Amino acid sequence: MDAAPRQLLVVWHSFTGATRAMAQALVDAAIEAGGEGVRVSLLHAPDAGAEDVLGADAVVFATPETLASISGAMKDFFDRSYYPLLGRCDGKPYALLVCAGSDGQPTIAQLRRIALGLRLREVAEPLLVCTHAQTAESITAAKTLPEEQLARGRELGALLGAGLALGIF
Description:
Number of helices: 6
Distance between the termini: 21 Å
Strand content: 15-25%
């Protein structure tokens, strides 16, 4: 009898489309690389909760950097989910995807602190996409990412999809 497909959950939020585009590139590649061995769920942060994380074999958190922090919608997701997850997802594999205008490191550090508290296991270096948006207009403008950035999202997705399908994590 074949084993049930492994579950990859991507919890995302986006203001300008950049994080959404990266998350979709990741999902598409995870599905392709994982084949029949992986099922992928792409959930907008307001629609995701602790039970979704508990039902997944691995999780990706994808957020824009907003004022050197995770987005409000991602913060709300963690506010609703953190305590219901505490002590229930030790060792679960995770990865991070952050879209930032200039830095991104404070957001990565914040997400890593949350993951450390939940005792999640990081299985890939965080994917940081820098849009170099520095003015109010460019920060809030809709974003179309260049192919080389999307390729980085696909690379992470392929790693996660194949890794789950092969039982590596």
